[in-house]
Amino acid sequence: MANKNDIKIAIVHDYLIKIGGAERVLLEMHKVFPNAPIYTLLYDEKGTKRIFSGKGFKIITSRLQKLPKFIRNRQKLLLTKFPQAIEDFDLSDYDIVISSSNSFAHGVITRPNTLHISYCYSPMRYVWDWHHEYLAENSIGFGLVGIIIRNMLSKIRVWDKSAAERVDSWIAISKTVELRIRKYYRASANVVYSPANIKNIQPTGKKPENFYLIVSRLSPYKKIDLAIEAFNKNGKKLFIVGEGSDFDRLKSTAKNNISLLGWQSDQTIAQLYARAKAFVFPGEEDFGLTPVESMAAGRPVVAYRRGGVTESVIDGKTGVFFDEPTADSLNDAINRLELIYEKISPDACQEQAKNFSTEKFASDFEKTIFAEYEKHQKMMEKI
Q: What is the CA radius of gyration of the chain?
């Protein structure tokens, strides 16, 4: 294999318009390969809190960046434009292309001798496993508009399956996502868990305060409304950190024991993790970084027993699960947690969180990338 420093690498990310879990992973990915430029469909410097505007980042946007801002801010209007825009990127100068993808980035076109590795957060959920829920959440029926949207999603699904065949090697963020890749793309995948930046999250050494905590983007699929319904019933104190399209609706349904705090700094969130009695994770996620962050602070997690959180939380040791997506099932789990609370060790929570640290990610990710590149080079030599 060539000297690692001589290998030219590019990273392709779907879009950089806000800071979420995928963007935090992208930051850690870029630390592993700091010289790699980042190609992305759309970039919003303000929406990403200017994290990617500092020295060391080279952001290359698609032709869609030239559209008026009011259109760029409404990504649903651009769904049919994204496939061609991602295919337009010229990546012919690179030896390795890493797509950081949960929708379109894996659709880039590369040369035969370029290795394309896709770090996949999930196959596009609104056209695959979450398709029917997506239609229901957005009230998409069978009227004229509904038929147009369904037809558009069907075409994107066909493109997505075809685009997936361009990927040489897959890396999944969890075993949950690995199964989806196997199901929808008929491909195998390595698993490198998403990194949780837990360096600045520490236990206080004090007894927890009497409140539960949620840290999440406030979108319908996050199921924050389920948690609000549960806490409206149980009367316990709940703090919700985050912003998003569902903020006003959620706030209007919350009783006085529930506080929606909006956006908060990482420092404030770290303090809330450490002060909280436990963390609540009501939705199904591909992996879920926030439960790991809560465990890093020594606090247990109450989570829906679906998705990647089943791989990070240990039932009865670092948290408890609920099995039905209902307020009553969540409240039953909270009651069970309170019965065993004194038996849950903050040290055990911390130790479990270390399995998903940024240091472990960096090591596993780099090893996997270069192992795949070495295999690719050997294959090319035989041609």
A: 21
User: In the β-sheet with 238-241, what is the strand arrangement from edge to edge?
Assistant: 258-262, 238-241, 212-215, 278-281, 301-304, 319-322
Report the C-alpha gap between 381 and 113 in whole angstroms. 10
pLDDT tens by residue, 29-43 = 999 999 999 999 999
Contact 99, 12 (CB under 8 A): yes
pLDDT at 1 over 80: no
Band of residue 75 on the pLDDT scale cut at 50, 70, 90: confident
Rounded-to-integer distance, Cα 207 and Cα 202, Å: 13
Mean pLDDT highest for which of 69-78, 91-100, 122-131?
A: 91-100
For the beta carbon of residue 335, count every other beta carbon within 10 angstroms.
Answer: 11
CA dist 383 and 294 (Å) reads 50
In tens, the pLDDT along 262-301 reads 999 999 999 999 999 999 999 999 999 999 999 999 999 9
pLDDT given at position 2: 66
163 — phi, psi (to 5°)? -65, -35
CA distance 80 to 92: 25
Average pLDDT over residues 114-142: 91
| Domains of the chain (ranges, CATH numbers) | 4-195+358-382 (3.40.50.2000), 212-354 (3.40.50.2000)
Q: In this predicted model, what pLDDT tens digit does every residue of 181-209 receive, in sequence order?
A: 999 999 999 999 999 989 889 888 889 99
Cα distances (Å, whole numbers) of residue 56 to 237, 283, 361: 43, 35, 20
Task: Specify the amino acid at residue 106.
Answer: H
> What does the alpha-carbon distance between residue 143 and residue 148 come to, in Å, rounded to a whole number?
9
69 by Cβ neighbours in 10 Å (0-12 / 13-18 / 19+) ranks as: exposed
pTM for the model stands at: 0.88
**Cα–Cα dist 233/254, whole Å:** 10
Handedness of CA 152, 154, 155, 156 (dihedral sign): positive
Task: Give the residue ranges of DSSP H helices in the chain.
Answer: 21-32, 69-72, 82-87, 131-137, 144-164, 175-180, 224-234, 247-253, 266-275, 289-296, 309-312, 327-340, 346-354, 358-382
Cβ partners under 8 Å of residue 181, min gap 6: 120, 123, 170, 172, 187, 188, 189
> Would you say 337 and 301 are in contact if contact means Cβ atoms under 8 Å apart?
no
Q: At what angle do helices 327-340 and 224-234 cross, to 10 degrees?
A: 60
